[in-house]
Amino acid sequence: MKILFQDRRILFNIIFCGIMLISCTSAPPQDPDNICNIFKEKRSWYKAAKRTEDRWKLPPYVLMSFIFQESSYQAKIRPEREKLFGVIPWTRPSSAKGYSQALVSTWEDYKKETGNRLARRDNFTDAADFIGWYASKGYFQGFDRRDARSLYLAYHEGYNGFKNKTYRKKQWLIKVADRVHAKSQIYEVQYWQCAKDLEKRRRFF
Fold it and tell me: Is the pTM of this model over 0.85?
């Protein structure tokens, strides 16, 4: 009987840990097109966005336009696998993963430079900090922190690639960067309509 009880307790612990791991992965917001509704629904995301702004000077509306484009606010998303012979699932085109779609190599650089050794790409706070960290590297090169288009092109191509204008050979990327900038502008208008209310909520909750 004692052994049976212990087995049940172990099983319970396994199930409990599984539930906790699932619950730690936040579902996408119900209204991804409205930054005010996103932050009202997900208070921790607002706090993470403000910490990113305080640390890296990246506005929340630029940050969120990046995440909207990269992952549609999906924590575990990865590039689809390529198909071998058009049928058999094969390798993925890159190691991108998570909210920021950061590559493994760039993520490792981020962890080393910031000391955030336990950072995870499927953690929103870590992903937000990563994007802010990467964007901040452009400020010393003359990038405007509100210029979502240029920052996104550099995010995709790297700052050396941006300097060499490699994006000019990728019309699809230019169109994506334009969408990111447009989304950032929409988010900005929305954000300033609720910024004071969000800040009051942050102070009391």
Answer: no
